[in-house]
Amino acid sequence: MSPPGHTAGVAPIVETFLSAGGVASERVFCDPDAPNIVAHVDGVGTGRQVVFNAHMDTMQAGDESRWTVPILTQTRRGGRLYGLGMGNMKGALAAMCLATTVLARHREKLRGRLTMTAVCDEVMFGERGAVHLLGARPDVHGDFLISGEGPGFMELAIAEKGLLWLDVEVKGDGGHSSRALTGRTAVARLAAILGRIDQINSMYATVPLEITGVTGGENNAGLRVSLSAGTISGGGVRSLIATQARAEIDVRLPPGVTAAEIEQRVREAANRDPDVTVTAVKAWDANWTALDHPLTLATVEAVRTVRGAAPAFVVRLPGSDARRWRDLGVPAICYGPQPTLSAGTDDFAYEQDVVDCAKVYARTALGLLNGG
């Protein structure tokens, strides 16, 4: 679970499965408690390189008292596979391992190279996983990246939202609470700022031309800016006026809206008050792969063959490691068996979806490596 995101207990399971399928693997790490795994399957002759990417760390279980199945043990029931991380993303990890070993059996029919990567530190945007791996090992960059991060409902994410983290801090005079004035305390002034920037949640993007046709998914959230104050703090004693109030802001950016644009809007809303500071902590813009790119087309054809219908194109709401490859100029898509928008209590994946994903990954890779 992340944190702490230790994957040393998961790695041997992945390694053993790959080895049983005739695929050698190795560990790449900057923290021995959080290793990454790399495996290559080389075909005959030279050609392009397809990379599978999944992460081994999972989200926290949340309120464990609400779970109706064992959290750390797989439960198979009613066509579902339950357990922590099944949707995000043990199901996709298993499907990619299976696809890798199946393709390895027929490596004499492949051109180029298939690479399987299983990483740590994805859940917390950490530096030990894909960031370290891509820096240390250029041989995993590849020509195409298939991420097992499902956007939910077996849809195909050819884009994902960007991210902007801002800290807003207000300072003011203290004193006894009996002297508080309307709108003058640090807490009240911070609340006013949060009220003004909440309007950003009504802002929608104009979709870039190369992904025209992509949808925002449920409630069109993928095409709307979302802004939330994740934490708010101020003061320390009930009967005293707080001299400082602070909010940590999380903004998710659809394709067509930049981090710089939203940061400027927040600063304009906050800087009406001279005692306010706005600090940019982390940011990246939305990223995508064109609808007519060979990777997108190959994935759609594989899904249509396996599932009987083409998938819907959506913008994935949370970030993923697909962005790390796109930042290097490598086209990437996200497709996986996560059944809903996000994991939670009684996390699960549909068993048939896991199997279908393995087929889709294998067919997509085969099509890209062999040119159709």
UniProtKB/TrEMBL annotation:
- For the keyword Hydrolase, the answer is yes
The superkingdom of the source organism is Bacteria
What is one Pfam family matched by this protein?
A: Peptidase_M20
Q: Where is the Peptidase M20 dimerisation domain?
A: 158-272
Supply one GO molecular-function term: metal ion binding
Among InterPro entries, the record links this protein to: Bact_exopeptidase_dim_dom, Peptidase_M20, Peptidase_M20_dimer, Peptidase_M20A
Entry keywords, A to Z: Hydrolase, Metal-binding
Keyword presence, Transit peptide: no
Q: What is this protein called?
A: Peptidase M20
Organism encoding this protein: Rhodoplanes roseus
